[in-house]
Write a structure and sequence with these properties.
- This protein is mostly helical and about 270 residues long.
- It has one domain (about 60-270): MetI-like (MetI-like fold, Orthogonal Bundle).
- It contains 12 helices and no strands.
- The relative contact order is 0.11.
- It is a multi-pass membrane protein.
- It is found in: Cell membrane.
- InterPro entries: MetI-like, MetI-like_sf.
- Belongs to the binding-protein-dependent transport system permease family.
- Keywords: Cell membrane, Membrane, Transmembrane, Transmembrane helix, Transport.
Length: about 270
């Protein structure tokens, strides 16, 4: 009978224990999330059935499901969801492109960055909901106005974040590129931009939510389609089941978009490693 090779088996056992502990942790977190959501829905339904809350104003899970089924059978729900998703994704992509281009321009021109920085901070601090009526006057009602509203909520903070990330790269790497004969363009594309990828990706996770917020603000004021329109329409005709259903759908969409950007961030980390 051969003795076990404890020295070789022990590292593998430790690794297996770590992986098992890691998986169990994620399972517990997922279970608790679902459990808390289930408890909330059950208490909500019981409160409505027992008349602890007025279901006309607060609705109930059953009424929300029936409202969603009705909207789906009328074939209006997929259209409203699709419009909001399209506007959000277009706003998000334009925010990323505009932010990257302007932050790059500011990095290459120190004088221009000194001139524009206070204006960017000022524009970022403005309440974007106050700008939406101006967009309607300037651009009229339609998808263009809503996309601009979505861009306005996220773009200024995104430019500042991108530009700040460009200046947080290891200066020793920049010195190394200069020592090897590289110019400012080489420093940016070989050191600054690759080194800023983690910050850029983390900023996009915030931007996707802000773009959705801006789109909903635009739909409140200038839309005849979309989940924001359903919320306003439902509140005007006192169909609060429709309002709450649309809000819950927005929560689901926001979570799915966040998970999508998070998966892109994880793929980028694996690629860099």
């Amino acid at each position: 009978m051969k003795p076990k090779n404890v020295q070789n088996d022990h590292p593998l056992t430790v690794q297996e224990q770590y992986l098992r502990k890691h998986k169990n942790h994620h399972r517990q977190v997922a279970f608790l999330r679902i459990f808390l959501l289930g408890i909330f829905l059950i208490l909500w339904e019981i409160s409505a059935d027992a008349y602890w809350i007025d279901s006309f104003f607060f609705s109930s899970p059953r009424r929300v499901v029936l409202c969603l089924i009705q909207l789906w059978t009328e074939r209006s729900l997929p259209m409203h969801i699709g419009i909001t998703l399209l506007e959000t994704i277009l706003s998000f992509l334009l925010v990323f492109v505009i932010s990257l281009l302007l932050a790059t321009l500011l990095w290459f021109s120190d004088k221009l960055s000194e001139i524009l920085e206070p204006y960017l901070v000022l524009l970022n601090s403005l309440p974007k909901s106050a700008l939406a009526p101006l967009f309607i006057v300037w651009l009229g009602t339609g998808i263009n106005t809503i996309i601009i509203a979505g861009i306005s909520v996220a773009v200024f903070g995104s430019i500042i974040s991108f530009y700040t990330a460009f200046h947080q790269v290891d200066p020793e790497k920049e010195i190394l590129i200069r020592t090897l004969g590289g110019n400012r363009r080489d420093i940016f594309f070989k050191v600054v931009l690759p080194g800023s990828v983690p910050t850029l990706l983390s900023t996009t996770k915030v931007n996707i939510g802000l773009s959705l917020v801006g789109v909903i603000i635009g739909e409140f004021l200038a839309a005849r389609r979309g989940l924001g329109y359903l919320i306003i329409y439902g509140s005007q005709v006192f169909q609060l089941d429709m309002v709450i259903s649309s809000i819950l759908l927005l929560c689901v969409i926001a979570m799915l978009l966040y998970l999508l950007t998070q998966s892109l961030e994880h793929c980028s980390k694996k690629h860099r490693n």
